[in-house]
Amino acid sequence: MTDPRAPEQIAPDALTETEARAELERLAAAMEAADRAYHQEDAPRITDAEYDAMKARNAAIEARFPELKRADSPSDRVGAAPAEGFGKIRHRVPMLSLANAFEEEDVADFLGSVRRFLGMDAGAPLAILAEPKIDGLSLSLRYEDGKLVEAATRGDGTTGEDVTRNALTVDDIPKTLPGGAPAVLEVRGEVYMSHADFAALNARQEQAWRDEQAHRRAAAEAKGKVYEPTGAPRTFANPRNAAAGSLRQLDPTITAQRPLRFFAYSWGELSAPLGKTQEEALATLRALGFTTNDRATRCESLADMMAVWTGIEADRAELGYDVDGVVYKVDDLGLQQRLGFRSSTPRWAVAHKLSAQTATTVLEGIDIQVGRTGALSPVARLRPVTVGGVVVSNATLHNEDYIAGRGSDGEPIREGRDLRIGDHVTVYRAGDVIPKVLDVDLTRRAAGAEPWTPPTVCPVCGSHAVREEGEAVRRCTGGLICSAQAVERLKHFVSRNAFDIEGLGAKQVEAFHTLGWIAEPADIFALEKTHGPGTMQKVANLEGWGEKSAAKLFAAIDARRAIPLERLIFGLGIRHVGETTAKMLARAYGTWEEFDAAMEAAGADLSARRAALAAHAAAPEDTRPKKPEMPETPAWDALLGIDGVGEVLAVSVVEFFAEDRNRAAVARLVAHLDVQEAEKIAAEGSPVLGKTVVFTGTLEKLTRAEAKAGAESRGAKVSGSVSKKTDILVAGEAAGSKLKKAQELGVQVMTEDEWIALIGG
Predict the structure, then answer these.
(1) Which of 240, 281, 687, 707 is the most buried (most CB within 10 A)?
(2) CB atoms closer than 10 angstroms to residue 474
(3) Which active-site residues does the annotation give?
(4) How does pLDDT run across 386-440, given as a tens digit for each residue?
(5) What domains can be seen in the chain, in order of their start residue?
(6) Phi first, then psi: what are they for 131, rounded to 5°?
(7) Residue 170: left (phi > 0), alpha (psi -120 to 50), or beta?
(8) Spatial CB neighbours of 431, under 8 Å, sequence gap ≥ 6
(9) Which contiguous run of DSSP H or E holds residue 379?
(10) How far apart are CA 241 and CA 433, in angstroms?
């Protein structure tokens, strides 16, 4: 019997393969949007706890269905691409994020995974350094010959924003280092703002506003006029946003006026070691003039680690700065080096999150937002309330099941209590960011309060809003006629990580769409011809525009005619295709022509597969073969052979290009463009660069995790199954069916020693 619940309502260990695919797609899209909001815009839209829950669910599903892991998996993602307006600095050593722990059991699992990777006995000594996880903005400082030469934000973990001039204004950051410092030293840490400094900054902002209003009032009264105050004080929501926004000012004189501080806790590139342990390295950084956290504590056991966490949790309000967890790091730097990294997190560290803070307020309304895919998302309008020192007024309500009191597993949440307009609700700011509704007080519910009813029509275009079987959300069926979707698609096309056209932001897209000037991406590149100089309707004649601003816009559009392939693929807004997936597809096919032809061929292959399956199903049972006779589908197989591309993603991309109207619109767009060849993967000189490798059997000199990490670091793709695309099979003891299949396909087979010799140890 089919489970009537949506995939997000089902526990990971109860999902079918189809449900798991759908849920991984949803999680990848939701977390990518959250990453952009947090890292690029300094304006988080969901709580840390919501994000952490999605990440944990994603990891649990991937662990159960490793073959379904997506190319744009949140497990492999760090931050978001750096914002425009700053120069770019490429990190010599990537700035990765940390895996999360929420319970003592998770911390115990972390210790266990470290010991297993290193081949240590369960009771073997393992020292851990624990320190508070500061809630600020990550920063990397590069010193050469004792002088600060570069400062960069995390960005996407590979490339960050150049904020060197701003960092030079922060008192806690040394401009020069004393003798004895390594010739090359990259110090990493967190820029933050203390609670006292944050309160003083907001007080100054409020006083500046009052002074301005007083000045205007005096000027008006001098002319015999009555002055009414305008606007409101430009205060900050919380210390994290204040610190991030202050450091990322284009004008460093503004940064200099802000009370920023810096804790050092790690390092990147070094010309000489800082010590043998994490604790020794921090002592060296202190001796060089950096501030480190005085609550860093060396632990010898799980009990020690939990004692540190409990102490910081208890003292949280007294620390004087925001923290959202405790970071545990293997203290021995030699062991850290052996443990190495996963795709986006180190194996030798984990962040143990703290609990949330709560407050009570009134749910004044439930609004519906329509996304670019037609999804209808309920948003809570709250009576403004202060939670943890920050005024909040809205919260994401996920979907109609959450409002009705049903959880992701279909079981009651809040003991089945639903949410109704007018209710007194408890909200919390998990991770000290955006609030989430935790519970409702039924004793204060009004007698006439009605249960909330999900909308059956789109609030934008009036089309039917339906919730399909297996879907967690309702979607507008309006498609092309729904202006919310059309505008959102265009906004996505010009967004920072897509075409990023300067001067053509969300407001301009909405205005030009309302005027009927742009209905699809190709119209943007024809804008100067159709609405530029010499026409009846000119951009320059619009309110707020002039000849110069119009000319700048047309020049910015022209500058984007030359576009990297991955940006074009991402900009098309294909469902389930995020930035990481777009880059993966671009690298796999290289050029637009090859990608376009491959998608057309893969579409034909998919149609042939479906026809074969349909014919098999339609055949009489008494003559029907056990398995359908499937046609050769090389283009489809090649698409699925790309590491991280699952069937749901492949179908989404292929069906996008199989739609005639989409192909026509894309053809009109590409006619305006010079699509650049994809960037080559950097691993020069590697004998396994670009090759697909499979490990099987028992390896004696390497753990499976070490073997995989070593292959990927040299530019190879590691697969879990053997196919025609496999280049090398590394066979250990007791190799079974994979070895047999590799031999049948003529795949090169190596022993473990041969593999180690090939890659150079």
Answers:
(1) 240
(2) 24
(3) 133
(4) 676 566 788 888 889 999 998 867 789 889 999 999 999 988 765 545 578 889 9
(5) 7-76 (1.10.287.610), 88-195+240-353 (3.30.470.30), 196-238 (no CATH), 566-676 (1.10.150.20), 692-759 (3.40.50.10190)
(6) -150, 155
(7) beta
(8) 47, 48, 49, 51, 52, 135, 324, 353, 356
(9) strand 375-387
(10) 9
